[in-house]
Amino acid sequence: PPSVSPSISPSFHLLLGPDDDSTVVTVTLEVPPVIGWCTDLVIDASSSNGNNNTSWKSIVWSVSAADQSDMSNVLNALPTTSIALHDPIVISWTLLTTNIYTISLELTNQYGVIGQDSASVVYDISSVYPEVTIIGSDELTAYPYETVSTTMSVKLPECVPASSALSYLWQVFVDS
Q1: Any idea what DSSP says for residue 53?
Q2: pLDDT the model gives residue 22
Q3: I need a surface site. Which of 40, 77, 86, 160 has the fewest CB within 10 A?
Q4: Closest by CA position to 155, among listed 142, 164, 147, 145
């Protein structure tokens, strides 16, 4: 009769638990430093990571105002689902008053690792801040005797009449 030899199977290592990407939670909140009348507050947490492409176990927001006013209306407007953190969050300017706001976000991944970040924004109801975009390169090099020319796009908040006057001041910084 033919002889049967035992089969040999290769060994393997099975790791159960978090991988390197899941042991650190990095929360990144980005807000403009100042917004003016009729300008929505845009909060961007989309660069946050550490959930290994799964849902966050916990999403906790806090909002405080320098004058200690009630922030429940702003808190209620903030999302509590992971998918909502992929895009910038827009808080209507109608929920804000002249103040300095501090927004904090704490995220916990499925392994219980926690990360937190805070950002502050000044809401100045007495001013209007247009959105200014320089078209083209963000860096220009010129000699002192040369004329510098650039094109920009200006977007005023929706409730500001398009016929409103716009004044601006350019500043040139010398890179040492």
Answers
A1: T
A2: 58
A3: 86
A4: 164
Residue 175, number of CB atoms within 10 A of its CB: 5
Q: Can you tell me the distance from the alpha carbon of 124 to that of 13, in angstroms, rounded to the nearest whole number?
A: 59
Confidence (pLDDT) at 101? 96
Which residue do the tokens 């500001």 mark?
Answer: 160
Cβ proximity of 78 and 61 under 8 Å = yes
The number of C-alpha atoms within 13 Å of 22 and in the hemisphere containing its C-beta is 15
pLDDT at 136: 85
Measured between alpha carbons, how far is 125 from 103 in angstroms, rounded to an integer? 19
In the prediction, which pLDDT does 162 show?
75
CB 150 within 8 A of CB 135: yes
Per-residue model confidence (pLDDT) at position 56? 94
**Sheet strands side by side (includes 58-65):** 34-36, 114-124, 99-108, 58-65
Which residues of the chain are under the pLDDT cut of 70?
1-22, 175-176
Distance of CA 36 to the CA centre of its chain: 18
d(CA 65, CA 98): 10
What residues does 129 pair with on adjacent strands? none
Residue type (1 letter), 8: I
Spacing of C-alpha 155 from chain mean position: 21
- pLDDT score of 88: 94
